[in-house]
Amino acid sequence: MMPYKVLVVDDELDFLETIVKRLERRRITVTGVASGEEALKQLETFPVDVVILDVKMPGMDGLETLRRIKRRWPFVEVILLTGHGSVESGIQGMELGAYDYVMKPAKLGDLIAKVEQAYERKRLREKQSQ
Amino acid sequence: MPHEGYRNLRLKIIATTLTFSLIPLFVLGASIYYQFHQSYSSKIHENLRAMAENRRHALDLFFDERISQLTTVAYTMTFDRVTAPGTLERLYDLIQSRSKYYVDLGVIDENGEHVAYCGPYKLKGLNYRDTDWFQSVIARGTYISDVFLGFRKVPHFIIAVARREDDHTWVLRATINTDLFEAMVRAAQTGRKGDAFLLNRDFVYQTAPRFHGGLLEKNTSLQLPMFMGTRLIEHAMEGRRLLVAATWLENKEWLLVVEQDPGEELLPLFRTRHLTIGLMTAGVIAVVFGTVLVSQLMIRQLIRADREKAELDANLMQSAKLAAVGKLAAGIAHEINNPLAVIREKAGWIRDLLEEEDIQSSDNFAEFADAVEKIEAHVERARTVTHRLLGFARRMEPVEEEVDLHRVLDETIAFLENEARHRNIAIHKEYMADEPTIISDSSQLQQVFLNIINNAIDAVEQDGDIWVRTHRDGKKNSITVEIADNGPGIPPEHLSKIFDPFFTTKRTGSGTGLGLSISYSIVKKLGGEIVVKSNRPKGAVFTLSFPARQGAD
Q: Which residue range or ranges hold the Histidine kinase domain (chain B) (predicted)?
C-alpha cells in the first residue's frame, strides 16, 4: 500500500465510484464522498493526506470546502478538480491554499503524480513545523 | 434607408422649404408692388386733376381779365368819345402795349352798326343786328362767343361788353387771338401722347386737339353733361387707354379736357414692376439654389450618419453575438466536460481490468483493448474542443507589457515559414521604418497573427504570396498590421459570418471554426480593431489596428 491516504470529493457519483476503484487498484488508500459537508464529516473521523476536491458542487462548493479544510487541518493538501477551465477559480483556489488544480477530464496518471507531489510537500511542511 | 427613400426625403425637404420661403416672397413682392401701384396711380390722378383745375383757373382768369379790361374801357368812355376818330386806335395801342391777346377792337351801336373799328381787317360798316351774339350781349351785358370762322374764314372768338349810356346802349367788341389762347390750353399737354383741348356745349373742338380731329370738328367720344368740379375718367380710345380729366369753365360753357397716356405716366411704375420681377426672379433662383444645395448637404450628412450607424450597429451586433455565443459555448463545454470525465474514468477502469491475466487470454482481448484506446482517443479529441471553447470564453485579463510588433510578427512568421515554403508560398514583410511598440499581450497577439497567417496559407493553398505590412496611422494614433494574400478571396456572403464561432469552410474535422472568432475577441480585448476586406478573385486583406503607445514618439 501507498503511504498516503486520499479523499475524493465529487458530486458526480459515476465519476466518484470509478476513480475510487481505480485508485484502490493502484494500492492507494482512498475514500469517496459526494459533497463538501460529507467531506468535512469524513475528515473528522478519517484523517487523510491529500483531498481531491471538485470545484463545482451543489450545496457547499469546492472553494468553500477548501477554505474550511484549510482552517481546520492546515497540513492537509488539496488538489482542485475544475470542470470549467477557468484559470480564475484555479488561481483563487491556489490563493486559498490548494496545492494545484487539474482540469477535467484529467488523465489518472497526471492526477496521481500531483497527489504524490502534494503528499511530499505535506510531509516536508509537517517536518518543518516540528 | 434605400436610395429611393433618400430621394423622396430630399424632394420633401425641397418642396417644404420652397413653399415656406417662396410664398412669403411672392406675397411680399405682390403686396409691395400693389401698394406702390396704388399710391403711384393715385398720385398721377391727383397730378392730372390738379393740372386740369390749374388750367381751368388760368382760363377763367383770362376771361375775367379780358372782360374786366373791356368793361373798364367801355365804362370810362362815352359813345361820342369812343367813336371820335383816333380814340379807338389809341385805346387799342394802350391795351396791346400790355398784352398781345387782342386782334382788333370795334364799337357797335344799338342798331348793330359797326361804327368804329381798329384792327387789321375792314370790318367797319358791317351790321350785326340780326346775329345771335349781338342779341345776347344787348340782353346780358357780356358775351363770349364760341370759336367761329366769321366773315374772314379765320378761327376766332370774340368778347363783347355792352355799355348802357343814358337811354341807349352800345357794345365794345374785341377779337381774341386764338393762337395765344390755344397756347394757354396746350400748356396742359404732357408727354408725347398727352393732349389738352376745349369743347363747347355741342362738343365741338374750340382749340385744335393734338390728335383725333381738328378745330371746329365734333368730338364723338366725350359726351359729358354739365357738372361741377373736375372729373377723372378712364377712357378707351382706338385701343389705347387714356386717363382723362374734364372740367367745365366757369365763365364760358366750355369743357376743358386734359388727356394723359397712363402708359407714359406710369413708366416709373413699369420700371418698378420690371425691377420687382427681376429681383423676385433672382430671389427665387437664390432660394431654389440654396434649397437644393442645403438639401443635398443634409441628405449627404444623413447618408453618412446612417452608414456610420449601420457600421456601428453591425459592430455592436457582432460583439453581442460573440458574447452570447461565448457564454453558450462555455456552458455547453462545462456540461460536456463532466460526462467526458466519467467516460474517461470508465474507459480507464476497463483498461485497468484488461490488465488482469484471465482477460488477457480471452479471444477478444485485442478488440477490447482497441475499443478502449479509441474511446480514450476520442475523449481526448472532445476535450480539446471543449477546452478551446472554454479558452474562447475565458475572461482572462490580458497581460500589459511593451510589445515590439515586428518581433512578434517575425516569430509568428518563422513558426509558419516551413509550412509556407513547403507549399511554395512567399511571405513578404513590408514593415514601417521605426519600431512599433505597443502596450499589449505578446502571447495573445501571437495567437491572433498565427491564426490569420495560417488561414492565409490555407486560402492560397499552393504557389502564391502573402504580404505582412505595418504602418502608423497618425490620425488615429494607431499602428496598423495588414495581412494580405492573393488567394481566391472570401465570398461576400461569408464576410459577415467570418468572425462567428464555428463558422468554417474547411473540411469537417480539420477546423473548429473558432480561430478567427477567438482572434476577434482577443483583438477587441486588447483594445484593437480587426476588419476584413475581400476583392474576389484577388485575395483577402485582414487589417488589424492597435492603439499606439502614448508618447512613443
A: 331-550
Identity of the amino acid at B289? F
B109-113 long-range contacts (CB < 8 A, ≥24 apart) are: B109/B79, B109/B168, B109/B170, B109/B171, B110/B138, B110/B168, B110/B169, B110/B170
Query: Is the minimum CB–CB distance between A47 and chain B shorter than 8 Å?
Result: no
Do B379 and A105 make contact, defined as CB atoms within 8 angstroms? Answer: yes
Rounded distance between C-alpha atoms, residue B364 and residue B231, angstroms: 140
A111 inside 8 A of chain B by CB:
no
The tens digit of pLDDT for each residue in B448-500 reads 898 899 888 888 888 889 999 998 887 778 889 999 998 888 888 888 788 87
**Chain A stretch 50-109, residues whose beta carbon is closer than 8 A to a beta carbon of chain B:** 56, 83-88, 103-108
* Smallest CA–CA distance from B333 into chain A, residue: A84
Interface residue B343 vs chain A (CB under 8 A): yes
Q: What ipTM describes this predicted complex?
A: 0.81
Domain B188-265, CATH among 3.30.1330.90, 3.30.1380.10, 3.90.180.10, 3.30.450.20: 3.30.450.20
Tell me which fold the domain B2-179 belongs to.
Beta-Lactamase (3.30.450)
Residue B2 confidence (pLDDT): 62
CB contact under 8 A, A25 and B352: yes
